[in-house]
Amino acid sequence: MMFDGFSLEIVKLADATLRVRHGGAGPPVLLLHGHPRTHTTWHRVAPILARHHTVICPDLPGFGQSSVPADAWESAGSSKRAKAGICVALMHRLGFDRFAVAGHDRGALTAFRMAMDHPASISHLVEIDGIPVLEHLERCDSRFATEWWHWFFFAQPDKPERAINVDPQAWYGGSAEAMGRENFEDYQAAISSPHVVHGMLEDYRAGLTIDRRHDAEDRARGLRVECPTLVLWSLRDDLERLYGDVLAIWRPWARHLQGRGIDSGHHVAEEAPDLLAKAILDFLA
């Protein structure tokens, strides 16, 4: 049974309504999924972490069964700053004033923004398959544009929704065998909702506009992540191949940095859960 012993609830906050799974006992750790997954992508990792920690897994705003932010100029409601504030409010509602956060893919961007904007709340930061969006865009070359073309397609108005909604399963892929049956069914329900697809794409639109500006403003001010930071990347994905030394990119952004690659493809929580959970536990210990 997926997330055996965990509770599932809907939490209504001032700026969002979130579907949240939580369980375990001990120091709190918040897990943030990526695109196009929901919180159930953590179903193989969360129970391992819950042996030593209280684990909280929400659907990010705009994803899964959480509320989709209203459309706004520069997709401001889907900015990582807005989502960071919502996630901090969630943790405070659950009784945690200070906690660790781990984010994968798009969730890594929100986790980074949480550490930058709310340093008093974040004890540890784990970045999985991510670098600040500004660093992605400033390093954009023909390889990035060829392999990550979807960033720019997703940022266009209307057209990506029309393309994806014709056949979401063909667009996004995935299988019950690889993901686990319940996780796959939850994911299928999300990508089959045009409303959710729009919310997920707004995350990318914000990335190319307001998120980029927030990163640039923070860099100009000399701000850095002050808490201990662990950066992990999938060795069978393309982050290291595109950028070489991933930690070199992170050093100007994080004061207390460590990291390494993990032998996995992109969806590491599903493909290498034991390796990922051990890396997180060792870091938090």
From TrEMBL:
It holds the Pfam family Abhydrolase_1. GO terms for molecular function: acyltransferase activity; hydrolase activity. Coiled coil: none annotated. PANTHER family: HYDROLASE, PUTATIVE (AFU_ORTHOLOGUE AFUA_2G14860)-RELATED, MONOACYLGLYCEROL LIPASE. GO terms for cellular component: membrane. This is Putative hydrolase or acyltransferase of alpha/beta superfamily. The lineage of its organism: Bacteria, Pseudomonadati, Pseudomonadota, Alphaproteobacteria, Hyphomicrobiales. Residues 27-242 form the AB hydrolase-1 domain. It comes from Mesorhizobium australicum (strain HAMBI 3006 / LMG 24608 / WSM2073). Keywords: Acyltransferase, Hydrolase, Transferase. The keyword Acyltransferase applies. Gene3D superfamilies: alpha/beta hydrolase (3.40.50.1820). Signal peptide: none annotated. InterPro entries: AB_hydrolase_1, AB_hydrolase_fold, AB_hydrolase_sf, Epox_hydrolase-like.
